[in-house]
Amino acid sequence: MLKLWALLLAALVMTPPAAAQSAGAPDPALVDDLVAANRILYDQGVVDGFGHVSTRHDRDAKRFLLARSMAPGLVTKDDILEFDLDGNAVDPRGRTLYLERFIHSEIYKAHPEVMAIVHSHSPSVIPFGVTAVALKPLYHMSAFLGSGAPVFEIREAGGDATDMLIRTPALGAALARSLGRAAVMLMRGHGNVVVADSLKLVVFRAIYTEINARLETEAVVLGQGKITFLNDEEAAAATATNNQVIGRAWELWKQKVAGGGK
Ligand SMILES: [Zn+2]
Q1: Which chain residues have CB less than 5 Å from ligand 1, an ion?
Q2: How many angstroms separate the alpha carbon of residue 118 from the centre of ligand 1?
Q3: Could you tell me the pTM of the whole model?
Q4: Closest CA to 179 of 88, 91, 114
Q5: How far apart are the CA of 135 and the centre of ligand 1, in A?
Q6: 172 C-alpha to center of ligand 1: Å?
Q7: One digit per residue, pLDDT tens: the chain, 262 residues?
Q8: How far apart are CA 23 and CA 31, in angstroms?
Protein backbone atom coordinates (compact mmCIF):
# COMPACT_ATOMS: atom_id res chain seq x y z
CA MET A 1 0.00 0.00 0.00
CA LEU A 2 2.79 2.33 0.99
CA LYS A 3 4.49 1.45 -2.28
CA LEU A 4 1.36 2.42 -4.25
CA TRP A 5 1.21 5.82 -2.53
CA ALA A 6 4.89 6.35 -3.24
CA LEU A 7 4.31 5.57 -6.92
CA LEU A 8 1.33 7.95 -7.08
CA LEU A 9 3.34 10.70 -5.41
CA ALA A 10 6.23 10.14 -7.80
CA ALA A 11 3.84 10.41 -10.77
CA LEU A 12 2.46 13.69 -9.41
CA VAL A 13 5.81 15.38 -8.91
CA MET A 14 7.32 14.12 -12.17
CA THR A 15 7.34 16.99 -14.64
CA PRO A 16 7.08 16.34 -18.35
CA PRO A 17 10.21 17.07 -20.42
CA ALA A 18 10.39 20.79 -21.05
CA ALA A 19 9.36 21.72 -24.57
CA ALA A 20 11.76 24.07 -26.30
CA GLN A 21 10.73 27.68 -25.87
CA SER A 22 9.32 29.32 -28.99
CA ALA A 23 11.14 32.36 -30.31
CA GLY A 24 7.72 33.86 -31.02
CA ALA A 25 5.95 34.47 -34.29
CA PRO A 26 8.40 35.00 -37.16
CA ASP A 27 8.15 37.96 -39.53
CA PRO A 28 5.13 37.17 -41.78
CA ALA A 29 7.12 38.35 -44.82
CA LEU A 30 9.80 35.74 -44.05
CA VAL A 31 7.18 32.98 -43.82
CA ASP A 32 5.66 34.22 -47.07
CA ASP A 33 9.08 34.03 -48.74
CA LEU A 34 9.70 30.54 -47.34
CA VAL A 35 6.40 29.33 -48.82
CA ALA A 36 7.37 30.97 -52.12
CA ALA A 37 10.85 29.38 -51.95
CA ASN A 38 9.30 25.91 -51.65
CA ARG A 39 7.08 26.51 -54.67
CA ILE A 40 9.79 28.20 -56.76
CA LEU A 41 12.20 25.31 -56.22
CA TYR A 42 9.50 22.91 -57.40
CA ASP A 43 8.56 25.10 -60.36
CA GLN A 44 12.23 25.39 -61.42
CA GLY A 45 12.85 21.63 -61.27
CA VAL A 46 15.21 21.64 -58.26
CA VAL A 47 12.92 19.65 -55.95
CA ASP A 48 10.14 17.20 -56.82
CA GLY A 49 8.07 15.35 -54.21
CA PHE A 50 11.21 15.40 -52.06
CA GLY A 51 13.73 17.99 -50.91
CA HIS A 52 13.33 20.92 -48.53
CA VAL A 53 14.27 24.53 -47.86
CA SER A 54 14.67 26.28 -44.52
CA THR A 55 15.54 29.70 -43.12
CA ARG A 56 16.87 30.77 -39.76
CA HIS A 57 14.21 32.41 -37.55
CA ASP A 58 14.43 36.22 -37.72
CA ARG A 59 13.99 36.59 -33.94
CA ASP A 60 16.33 33.85 -32.68
CA ALA A 61 19.46 32.47 -34.35
CA LYS A 62 18.97 29.21 -32.44
CA ARG A 63 15.70 28.49 -34.22
CA PHE A 64 14.87 27.80 -37.85
CA LEU A 65 11.73 27.45 -39.96
CA LEU A 66 11.00 24.39 -42.11
CA ALA A 67 7.83 22.83 -43.50
CA ARG A 68 6.31 19.65 -42.09
CA SER A 69 7.09 16.49 -44.09
CA MET A 70 5.35 17.09 -47.43
CA ALA A 71 5.96 17.88 -51.11
CA PRO A 72 7.54 21.35 -51.34
CA GLY A 73 5.27 22.39 -54.21
CA LEU A 74 2.21 22.14 -51.93
CA VAL A 75 3.57 23.99 -48.86
CA THR A 76 1.36 26.72 -47.33
CA LYS A 77 1.91 29.06 -44.36
CA ASP A 78 0.14 26.62 -42.05
CA ASP A 79 2.73 23.92 -42.82
CA ILE A 80 5.72 25.93 -41.56
CA LEU A 81 7.10 24.74 -38.20
CA GLU A 82 9.72 26.17 -35.83
CA PHE A 83 12.69 23.93 -34.93
CA ASP A 84 15.55 24.12 -32.45
CA LEU A 85 19.16 23.38 -33.40
CA ASP A 86 18.81 19.74 -32.29
CA GLY A 87 16.13 19.21 -34.93
CA ASN A 88 13.19 19.17 -32.49
CA ALA A 89 9.97 20.89 -33.57
CA VAL A 90 9.05 23.43 -30.89
CA ASP A 91 5.36 22.64 -31.38
CA PRO A 92 4.93 19.81 -33.93
CA ARG A 93 1.09 20.03 -33.74
CA GLY A 94 0.96 16.31 -34.46
CA ARG A 95 2.66 16.78 -37.82
CA THR A 96 5.13 14.35 -39.37
CA LEU A 97 8.64 15.81 -39.65
CA TYR A 98 11.19 15.46 -42.44
CA LEU A 99 13.55 12.56 -41.66
CA GLU A 100 16.48 14.64 -42.89
CA ARG A 101 15.81 17.76 -40.82
CA PHE A 102 19.23 17.21 -39.18
CA ILE A 103 20.85 18.51 -42.38
CA HIS A 104 19.41 21.89 -41.42
CA SER A 105 19.81 21.79 -37.63
CA GLU A 106 23.45 20.72 -37.68
CA ILE A 107 24.51 23.14 -40.43
CA TYR A 108 22.86 26.06 -38.58
CA LYS A 109 24.58 24.90 -35.39
CA ALA A 110 28.06 24.66 -36.96
CA HIS A 111 27.89 27.63 -39.34
CA PRO A 112 26.53 30.84 -37.75
CA GLU A 113 26.88 32.73 -41.04
CA VAL A 114 24.43 30.41 -42.82
CA MET A 115 20.90 31.86 -42.85
CA ALA A 116 19.15 29.54 -45.33
CA ILE A 117 19.57 25.99 -46.64
CA VAL A 118 18.23 23.94 -49.56
CA HIS A 119 18.53 20.17 -49.69
CA SER A 120 17.54 18.57 -52.98
CA HIS A 121 18.10 15.61 -55.26
CA SER A 122 18.23 17.90 -58.30
CA PRO A 123 18.89 15.41 -61.09
CA SER A 124 21.64 16.97 -63.24
CA VAL A 125 23.90 17.29 -60.18
CA ILE A 126 23.81 13.60 -59.18
CA PRO A 127 26.47 12.38 -61.69
CA PHE A 128 29.05 14.79 -60.24
CA GLY A 129 28.71 13.13 -56.82
CA VAL A 130 29.47 9.65 -58.14
CA THR A 131 32.29 10.35 -60.60
CA ALA A 132 35.67 12.05 -60.41
CA VAL A 133 34.35 15.00 -62.45
CA ALA A 134 34.19 18.10 -60.23
CA LEU A 135 31.21 20.44 -60.35
CA LYS A 136 32.84 23.81 -61.12
CA PRO A 137 31.59 27.20 -62.32
CA LEU A 138 31.15 27.08 -66.06
CA TYR A 139 29.74 30.62 -66.33
CA HIS A 140 29.18 33.70 -64.20
CA MET A 141 25.71 32.76 -62.91
CA SER A 142 27.14 29.83 -60.97
CA ALA A 143 30.29 31.63 -59.81
CA PHE A 144 29.37 30.76 -56.19
CA LEU A 145 30.68 27.24 -56.95
CA GLY A 146 34.15 28.78 -56.56
CA SER A 147 36.93 26.28 -57.01
CA GLY A 148 34.49 23.34 -57.04
CA ALA A 149 31.85 21.72 -54.85
CA PRO A 150 33.13 19.20 -52.25
CA VAL A 151 31.55 15.73 -52.07
CA PHE A 152 30.21 14.22 -48.84
CA GLU A 153 30.86 10.47 -48.56
CA ILE A 154 28.31 9.06 -46.12
CA ARG A 155 30.25 5.80 -45.72
CA GLU A 156 32.97 7.69 -43.84
CA ALA A 157 30.49 8.85 -41.20
CA GLY A 158 27.81 6.15 -41.26
CA GLY A 159 29.49 2.96 -42.55
CA ASP A 160 28.70 0.82 -45.57
CA ALA A 161 25.01 0.08 -44.95
CA THR A 162 23.11 3.36 -44.49
CA ASP A 163 19.96 4.12 -46.51
CA MET A 164 21.89 7.25 -47.68
CA LEU A 165 19.68 9.61 -45.64
CA ILE A 166 20.90 12.11 -43.04
CA ARG A 167 18.50 10.74 -40.45
CA THR A 168 20.53 11.37 -37.24
CA PRO A 169 22.16 14.41 -35.60
CA ALA A 170 25.55 12.62 -35.85
CA LEU A 171 25.26 12.26 -39.63
CA GLY A 172 24.09 15.89 -39.86
CA ALA A 173 27.12 17.01 -37.85
CA ALA A 174 29.48 15.06 -40.14
CA LEU A 175 27.83 16.69 -43.16
CA ALA A 176 28.16 20.15 -41.60
CA ARG A 177 31.88 19.56 -40.96
CA SER A 178 32.46 18.47 -44.58
CA LEU A 179 30.71 21.58 -45.90
CA GLY A 180 33.41 23.91 -44.64
CA ARG A 181 33.08 27.34 -46.31
CA ALA A 182 31.56 25.97 -49.52
CA ALA A 183 28.22 27.23 -50.86
CA VAL A 184 27.32 23.84 -52.33
CA MET A 185 28.20 20.31 -51.29
CA LEU A 186 27.33 17.17 -53.20
CA MET A 187 26.14 14.09 -51.35
CA ARG A 188 27.40 10.96 -53.09
CA GLY A 189 24.54 8.82 -54.44
CA HIS A 190 21.91 11.13 -52.94
CA GLY A 191 21.76 14.83 -53.83
CA ASN A 192 23.21 18.12 -52.66
CA VAL A 193 22.99 20.83 -50.05
CA VAL A 194 23.18 24.56 -50.78
CA VAL A 195 23.70 27.32 -48.20
CA ALA A 196 23.62 31.13 -48.26
CA ASP A 197 23.22 34.15 -46.03
CA SER A 198 19.64 34.74 -47.21
CA LEU A 199 16.62 32.81 -48.40
CA LYS A 200 16.56 34.51 -51.79
CA LEU A 201 20.24 33.81 -52.37
CA VAL A 202 19.96 30.14 -51.44
CA VAL A 203 17.11 29.69 -53.93
CA PHE A 204 19.19 31.44 -56.61
CA ARG A 205 22.15 29.17 -55.88
CA ALA A 206 20.09 25.96 -55.85
CA ILE A 207 18.59 26.81 -59.25
CA TYR A 208 21.93 27.72 -60.84
CA THR A 209 23.64 24.67 -59.33
CA GLU A 210 21.22 22.52 -61.31
CA ILE A 211 21.69 24.61 -64.48
CA ASN A 212 25.51 24.56 -64.18
CA ALA A 213 25.47 20.78 -63.82
CA ARG A 214 23.38 20.43 -66.97
CA LEU A 215 25.65 22.79 -68.94
CA GLU A 216 28.83 21.18 -67.65
CA THR A 217 27.59 17.77 -68.78
CA GLU A 218 27.02 19.22 -72.27
CA ALA A 219 30.38 21.01 -72.28
CA VAL A 220 32.26 17.84 -71.32
CA VAL A 221 30.87 16.14 -74.43
CA LEU A 222 31.28 19.14 -76.72
CA GLY A 223 34.80 19.87 -75.55
CA GLN A 224 35.78 16.21 -75.34
CA GLY A 225 36.58 16.71 -71.67
CA LYS A 226 38.34 20.06 -72.04
CA ILE A 227 36.49 22.96 -70.39
CA THR A 228 37.63 26.44 -69.43
CA PHE A 229 36.07 27.21 -66.04
CA LEU A 230 35.98 30.54 -64.21
CA ASN A 231 39.20 31.00 -62.24
CA ASP A 232 39.07 31.87 -58.53
CA GLU A 233 39.35 35.62 -59.16
CA GLU A 234 36.59 35.62 -61.79
CA ALA A 235 34.40 33.48 -59.54
CA ALA A 236 34.83 35.85 -56.59
CA ALA A 237 34.15 38.97 -58.68
CA ALA A 238 31.08 37.49 -60.41
CA THR A 239 29.69 36.28 -57.07
CA ALA A 240 29.92 39.81 -55.65
CA THR A 241 28.09 41.19 -58.70
CA ASN A 242 25.37 38.51 -58.69
CA ASN A 243 24.65 39.00 -55.00
CA GLN A 244 23.60 42.58 -55.78
CA VAL A 245 21.06 41.65 -58.45
CA ILE A 246 19.36 38.44 -57.34
CA GLY A 247 16.18 40.40 -56.51
CA ARG A 248 15.40 40.62 -60.21
CA ALA A 249 15.27 36.84 -60.64
CA TRP A 250 13.48 36.34 -57.31
CA GLU A 251 10.60 38.66 -58.29
CA LEU A 252 10.16 36.79 -61.58
CA TRP A 253 10.22 33.33 -59.97
CA LYS A 254 7.92 34.41 -57.14
CA GLN A 255 5.36 35.95 -59.47
CA LYS A 256 5.23 32.73 -61.49
CA VAL A 257 4.18 30.70 -58.43
CA ALA A 258 1.91 33.40 -56.92
CA GLY A 259 -1.64 32.41 -56.18
CA GLY A 260 -0.86 29.22 -54.28
CA GLY A 261 0.16 28.84 -50.68
CA LYS A 262 -1.87 31.63 -49.11
ZN1 LIG B 1 17.63 13.74 -49.33
Answers
A1: 191
A2: 10
A3: 0.91
A4: 114
A5: 19
A6: 12
A7: 556 666 555 555 555 455 578 999 999 999 999 999 999 999 999 999 999 999 999 999 999 999 999 999 999 999 999 999 999 999 999 999 999 999 999 999 999 999 999 999 999 999 999 999 999 999 999 999 998 999 999 999 999 999 999 999 999 999 999 999 999 999 999 999 999 999 999 999 999 999 999 999 999 999 998 999 999 999 999 999 999 999 999 999 999 999 765 5
A8: 14
